[in-house]
């Protein structure tokens, strides 16, 4: 996950979900909804508050690249092939 300095906030995953365009939040919300029974396998749910707060902006608040949050989100996205499908279905 990185900031490409394009005004879209963080860009994550092979598809390029962005915090500035709402689609990263949509992906994480859909993934979390589909994985409510076992939150131990959902490394993305803890970042929903930060994603909601910065949705539609280029804010890094709560997802600072110097923290583990950015790495956790990117790692969870790369491990969750079905998350990409779930996220794109809603977009």
Provide a descriptive summary of the structure in words.
This protein has four helices and three strands. It is mainly alpha-helical and 91 residues long. The chain has one domain: Chitosanase, subunit A, domain 2 (Chitosanase, Chain A, domain 2). A hairpin with a 4-residue loop joins strand 2 and strand 3 (17-18).
Features:
mainly alpha, Chitosanase, Chain A, domain 2, 4 helices
Write a brief structural summary.
With about 90 residues, the chain is mainly α. The chain has four helices and three strands, in the order βββαααα.
Indicate the CATH architecture.
2-Layer Sandwich
**Beta fraction of the residues?**
5-15%
CATH class: Alpha Beta
Q: How far from one another are the termini?
A: 19 Å
| Strands, count | 3
Question: Helices and strands in order, then pairings?
Answer:
Blueprint: E1 2-3, E2 10-12, E3 17-18, H1 23-34, H2 48-54, H3 68-79, H4 81-90
Antiparallel strand pairs: 1-2, 2-3
């Amino acid at each position: 996950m990185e900031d490409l300095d394009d005004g879209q906030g963080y860009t994550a995953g092979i598809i390029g979900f962005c915090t500035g365009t709402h689609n990263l939040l949509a992906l994480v919300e859909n993934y979390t909804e589909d994985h409510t029974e076992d939150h131990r396998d959902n490394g993305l749910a803890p970042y929903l508050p930060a994603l909601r707060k910065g949705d539609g902006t280029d804010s890094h608040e709560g997802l600072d690249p110097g923290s583990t949050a950015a790495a956790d989100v990117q790692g969870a996205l790369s491990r969750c092939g079905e998350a990409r499908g779930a996220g794109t279905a809603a977009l």
